[in-house]
Specification:
The chain is of the alpha/beta class and 225 residues long. It has eight helices and twelve strands. Helix 1 crosses helix 5 (106-125). The mean pLDDT is 86. The protein binds calcium ion. Calcium ion binds at residues 10-11, 53, 55-56.
Length: 225
């Protein structure tokens, strides 16, 4: 369920930082440090999005983009070294979905990844929107609002909240909630869910009280009262 992001970057440190930020937001990642490996991983891992550096050993990013685009519509975000390259790249008609100029902030890259996935998923899946009182969760757009105000939630938090909101008043066990966050494969245990809930309640402000703890079981979202 978690989107897989293929990071193609020959500078190990940059790739590690991106990987770190993306994983913290609940994405799964694969890494390639040259263009040949990028094509192999693209076929093997079937990523939901490719972050593609241009200057790469073996095959450069332009050639990788061309080859991927000849067979696939997978979203591509190009990482370019210089501002003035972007016009040239757009002119080449590589079919990239977005461009980020180095040096970038990893946060900005994550925001672009989400935006591009939102667009590409938006027309694939249509919107799934859940409401409970003033709380609105749009899983298509990966956004949540309380009384119309956009909330700053991570992907894991949105998934967790989305599961609760899908069937309001139904109690969800911690294990179910953990599975949906995408943390299950790392060192997470069910206390991770409690930590997420605590953060969600805080971020939700007035809407946070809709999340009820059911002792010894898990959590539910109240849709009335
Ligand atoms: Ca490079």
């Amino acid at each position: 369920m978690n989107a897989i992001i293929l990071i193609v970057e020959d500078e190990a440190r940059l790739a590690e930082i991106l990987e770190d930020y993306l994983r913290r937001e609940g994405f799964r990642t694969e890494r390639a440090k040259d263009g040949g490996r990028a094509l192999e991983l693209w076929r093997a891992a079937n990523p939901d999005l490719i972050l593609l550096d241009i200057m790469l050993p073996v095959l450069d990013g332009l050639e990788v983009a061309r080859r991927v685009r000849s067979e696939s519509e997978v979203p591509i975000i190009m990482l370019t070294a210089r501002d003035d390259e972007v016009d040239k790249l757009v002119g080449l008609g590589l079919g990239a979905d977005d461009y980020v100029v180095k040096p970038y902030s990893p946060r900005e890259v994550v925001a672009r990844v989400k935006a591009v996935l939102r667009r590409s998923r938006g027309h694939l899946l249509g919107a799934e929107v859940y409401r409970a009182g003033g709380l609105e969760i749009d899983l298509g757009a990966f956004e949540a609002r309380c009384d119309g105000q956009l909330l700053d939630l991570t992907t894991s938090e949105l998934r967790l909240l989305g599961l609760l909101a899908k069937e309001p008043n139904r109690v969800r066990q911690r294990a179910e909630l953990l599975a949906v966050t995408g943390d299950a494969e790392s060192f997470a245990d069910e206390r991770t869910v409690d930590a997420h809930i605590k953060n969600i309640r805080r971020k939700l402000g007035d809407c946070g009280e809709r999340i009820e703890t059911v002792r010894g079981v898990g959590y539910k979202l109240r849709d009335s009262g």
